[in-house]
Amino acid sequence: MPTGVHLRDVREQLFGAAERVLLRDGPSGLTSRAVTTEAGCAKGVLHRHFTDFDGFLAEFVLDRVDRMDPQAAALREAAGTGTVVGNLTDALVAVFSSVAVAIVPLVTFRDELRARLRQAWPAGVPVLTEACVMVAGYLTAERDLGRIAADAEVDTLAATLIGTGHLLHADRTGTAPERAALHRVVTTVLAGVLRGERPGRPRVD
User: Fold this and answer.
1) Can you list the domains of the chain with their CATH numbers?
2) What does the buried/exposed string (b/e) look like for 87-107 if buried means 16 or more CB atoms within 10 Å of the residue's CB?
3) Which of 45, 101, 129, 145 has the most CB within a 10 Å radius?
4) Which UniProt keywords are given for this protein, alphabetically ordered (predicted)?
């Protein structure tokens, strides 16, 4: 029986391999054989540690969602500093530069994976839902500080920002949009609720 430490090592090895395959080959290329080949281990290793491949994928997706927690904490701590538009632009760049964009089509591609995820994630698409919660939490903090309007609908604003950001990044084979494009989205969406802030020109890095 493997120890807990060994199990964590195997999980991280397989999850890392799954992420690389997903980013390189897309959802259709993400098979159990592709994952174990990428990880450099026998196919049976995956099935010794997970009930089946969809069970493995469900844990992989939830692990990547959990990895958004530090980003969410950093965004909350940024409330009251810098500019609202700048902080949110940085957050969207980070979300959509990660494996998040590739996970969305994976979830929609596999019916059984969605069924497994429903056991732990009853509504919405993991990653996008978590990103909306992250942005809404930040906007709530800024609303409490008076940097956005007191009547701002933070949940609607968050969903609009994440949905638009996802549309800009939806083609994984295309060129990723520049930061300036996300800056314009944030500026436009928040135009009616910002208080005492001039968005200014976006950074080009």
Assistant:
1) 4-49 (1.10.10), 63-190 (1.10.357)
2) bbbbbbbebbebbbbbbbebb
3) 101
4) DNA-binding, Transcription, Transcription regulation
